Amino acid sequence: xxxxxxxxxxxxxxxxxxxxxxxxxxxxxxxxxxxxxxxxxxxxxxxxxxxxxxxxxxxxxxxxxxxxxxxxxxxxxxxxxxxxxxxxxxxxxxxxxxxxxxxxxxxxxxxxxxxxxxxxxxxxxxxxxxxxxxxxxxxxxxxxxxxxxxxxxxxxxxxxxxxxxxxxxxxxxxxxxxxxxxxxxxxxxxxxxxxxxxxxxxxxxxxxxxxxxxxxxxxxxxxxxxxxxxxxxxxxxxxxxxxxxxxxxxxxxxxxxxxxxxxxxxxxxxxxxxxxxxxxxxxxxxxxxxxxxxxxxxxxxxxxxxxxxxxxxxxxxxxxxxxxxxxxxxxxxxxxxxxxxxxxxxxxxxxxxxxxxxxxxxxxxxxxxxxxxxxxxxxxxxxxxxxxxxxxxxxxxxxxxxxxxxxxxxxxxxxxxxxxxxxxxxxxxxxxxxx
Length: 435
Hints:
Strand content: 5-15%
Order of helices and strands: EHEHHEHEHEHEHEHEHHHHEHEHEEHEHE
Number of strands: 14
Distance between the termini: 60 Å
Low-confidence stretches: none
Radius of gyration: 23 Å
Structural class: alpha/beta
Helix content: 40-55%
């Protein structure tokens, strides 16, 4: 099939490359000419495992193209994906200006039947507004489809190629049939293609992300209670997760969630509920608990150093909001590091992939170390903020040798307190018993 994807962020670029991988002819469109030129030359603006290989391979096979010419891309395509950003506005609502602007541009290019697929995360009812907007511009036949993404950053390529489910929100049998054909190669493992109305598809995305966010906030609250009562959050978690109704995914205590999806989507759904006359008590609690978890962590540090961080140096491992991505949007590290800087501390940080993004945020207010162990040289403590795989089995003897004092604040509960005790470390974590 001939497809264009408008927007080359995480969602658009992954979608374009994966659709091309299945044999479709795909044009990825973006207004940023510099970004498009880099993509044409194989330079990927984000870190996502497997994505660079996928882009290079499909570009070399003549299936994946990059362009700034939206009109040309739309005219050459049967299916047009809208995959532009929907960041939160100053009120916490989804900013749909890019979605509507893209829809208007598509409307001006229509010369025959097209399926216009909204891949961006949008509030319930947006699909119908897009349809009305396009109808006000053109008489050419088209259909609107909602096709929300359920991609995990760090595993987005695999999630797209082998999805748990594909959700297609459509009121048109014609569009539904074509979309089913498009996704048929991605669902050969038997996972379902779910057909529903447009509004239900839009809500499904928000409901899924908000539930995962709620799970994280719930286990963090349990961990805080465990810490105060003498229970061990890891033992409690293991017992709870043994129940098949609950499961272990997104059920890890720590410093909370970040990223471009969970915080934004949770707030957007809260606003949708408020606009509908519903007080979303559970959703608001999940959001507030997540923010509070960062303070729980910094309070541990302040307490350990008697509320005086002036002249103290902290080695930080991990800046991105999660491992396997360079994304720092809403990363807990931002709040934590800024709090420590405000208290007069010095930060020496290491992250495998996020330095370019970190420098946009922190500029020269922190030191960027070349290796994880360099970040610990003469530091008063290690702060583990992102659970990159390479941090899981470090050389504890070398860590102790580099640190000014053998102190670890583990924001992701990665280490075994017994092992750290053997090495002579003072260990602080979230909700667990330390020796």
